[in-house]
Design a protein that fits this description.
The chain is mainly beta. It has one domain (about 30-149). The chain is built from one helix and ten strands. The chain has one helix at about 1-10; strands spanning about 30-35, 35-40, 45-50, 60-65, 70-80, 90-95, 100, 110-115, 120-130, 135-149. Mean pLDDT is about 85; it is low at about 1-20.
Length: about 150
């Protein structure tokens, strides 16, 4: 009985789990505010593509982000592997149903890659995207992603 009381006392004196007070930072997400609506893209895929480039190969990443609850909305962007900054992403496309909006010339759109390691990609997106006829556009005032692949 005495040993049981000591065991129970020592178990109850252990420190409490503080994970509820300090939740882990979420990873593997892409979130963007598009025309005033926050969209969370929770299905992410990163593909490495080696480009031959006339004997001087380089590697690109193709990132695809979709919503598990709405497959009509997706984001695809291409960027240089292991490069950071605002010049590394050369293609960005948001699809909503049958309409594609991309970072065509003339749009002020920026993808700022802050982390680009062999298995981690992190950054921010902001700006305007237009459809192929350049008659309709959407605005992304802020967006971010943190992807481990």
């Amino acid at each position: 009985m005495f040993i049981t009381a000591i065991a129970l006392t020592s178990l109850s004196s252990c420190s409490k789990d503080d994970s509820k007070n300090n939740p882990a930072q979420p990873t593997n997400f892409l979130t963007a505010i598009i025309n005033g609506v926050t969209l969370n893209f929770d299905t992410l895929k990163v593909v490495k593509e080696v480009v031959p480039n006339d004997g001087d190969p380089y590697t690109d990443l193709i990132v695809t982000a979709t919503k598990s609850d709405d497959h009509s909305k997706s984001i695809i962007f291409n960027l240089q592997h292991l490069q950071v900054g605002t010049e590394t992403c050369y293609y960005f496309d948001y699809t909503d149903g049958d309409i594609n909006y991309d970072s065509a010339i003339g749009n002020s759109f920026e993808v700022n890659i802050t982390v680009n390691t062999p298995n981690k990609l992190k950054g921010n997106i902001t700006g305007r995207l237009s459809d192929s006829s350049n008659t309709n556009s959407i605005v992304i005032p802020s967006g971010s992603f943190d992807i481990t692949y």
